[in-house]
């Protein structure tokens, strides 16, 4: 086994994963705060285990002194999307980023693997600031839909169980499941507009409720207790009706009351 200090070797990769997770989660939050559609559903990340690194280096004939360049997915980020169309949009956002450099891409969405695996892979070089200075670390960003991720997770578990030697019957069933996941994605894409409209209505309702309640709290801050209590009462009478129009009008009135309060 390689005699290097693996804990120190993996530190930059661990930092890279944590920083990239924060950046992609922040991107998701920023798009939503701008009331734009976010192609990111959720983000996960991991650093490859030492045993997996050694197994892959042996399989690919990568010398131990070339692990940093020869094994490109020691740091891994996985981003899940709702729709297949979101994958390309997110990939384009990553291509335009200036805080990482795109090395190359692999499109397994259009060109699935023989097993049925679909995902979009982007190898990026990320400059991480360590205690010893800046270090450029390779990381793999996988972009896939929820259906693709479900299938890939099951396949990974089965490969682990059977040590990469899946029985023929399991391979056939996995292939059928992969096709079913693909058809599910296609079906979701066909009603994408309806789904997004429903989600937007839900978000609008949630946002206006938050705005009204925050506005009422701000009136209390300015000691406009009577006004705040009246607005609270009106809100309580209507919020369960999902009358977004009324809540928007109420929010506008609260904004005017806050403006008056600020003027004293």
UniProtKB/TrEMBL annotation:
Q: Does the keyword Nuclease apply?
A: no
The pathway that the record names for this protein is: Purine metabolism; ppGpp biosynthesis; ppGpp from GTP: step 1/2
Q: Name one GO biological process term.
A: guanosine tetraphosphate metabolic process
GO molecular function, a single term: kinase activity
Q: Does the keyword Coiled coil apply?
A: no
Domain RelA/SpoT residue range list: 45-166
Listed EC numbers: 2.7.6.5
Which EC class is this protein assigned?
Answer: transferase
Q: Which domain of life is it from?
A: Bacteria
Q: Which family does it belong to?
A: Belongs to the RelA/SpoT family.
PANTHER family annotated for this entry?
Answer: GTP PYROPHOSPHOKINASE YJBM, GTP PYROPHOSPHOKINASE YWAC
Q: How does it assemble?
A: Homotetramer.
The protein's name in its UniProt record: GTP diphosphokinase
Q: Which organism is it from?
A: Paenibacillus foliorum
């Amino acid at each position: 086994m390689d005699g290097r200090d693996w804990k120190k070797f993996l530190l930059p990769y661990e930092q890279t994963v944590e920083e990239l997770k924060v950046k992609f989660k922040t991107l998701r939050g920023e798009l939503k705060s701008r009331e734009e559609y976010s192609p990111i559903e959720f983000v996960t990340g991991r650093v490859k285990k030492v045993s997996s690194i050694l197994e892959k280096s042996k399989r690919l004939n990568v010398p131990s002194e070339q692990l940093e360049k020869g094994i490109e997915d020691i740091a891994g980020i996985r981003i899940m999307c709702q729709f297949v169309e979101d994958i390309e949009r997110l990939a384009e956002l990553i291509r335009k980023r200036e805080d990482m450099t795109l090395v190359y891409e692999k499109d397994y969405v259009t060109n699935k693997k023989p097993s049925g695996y679909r995902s979009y892979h982007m190898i990026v070089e990320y400059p991480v600031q360590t205690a010893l200075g800046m270090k450029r670390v390779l990381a793999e960003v996988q972009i896939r839909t929820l259906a693709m991720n479900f299938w890939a997770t099951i396949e990974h578990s089965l490969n682990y169980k059977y040590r990469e030697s899946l029985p023929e019957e399991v391979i056939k069933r996995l292939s059928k499941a992969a096709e079913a996941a693909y058809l599910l994605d296609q079906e979701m894409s066909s009603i994408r507009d309806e789904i997004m409209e429903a989600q937007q209505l839900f978000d609008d309702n949630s946002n206006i409720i938050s705005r009204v309640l925050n506005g009422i709290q701000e009136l209390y801050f300015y000691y406009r207790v009577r006004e705040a209590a009246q607005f609270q009462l009106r809100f309580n009478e209507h919020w369960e009706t999902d009358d977004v129009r009324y809540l928007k009008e109420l929010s506008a009135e609260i904004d005017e009351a806050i403006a008056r309060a600020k003027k004293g």
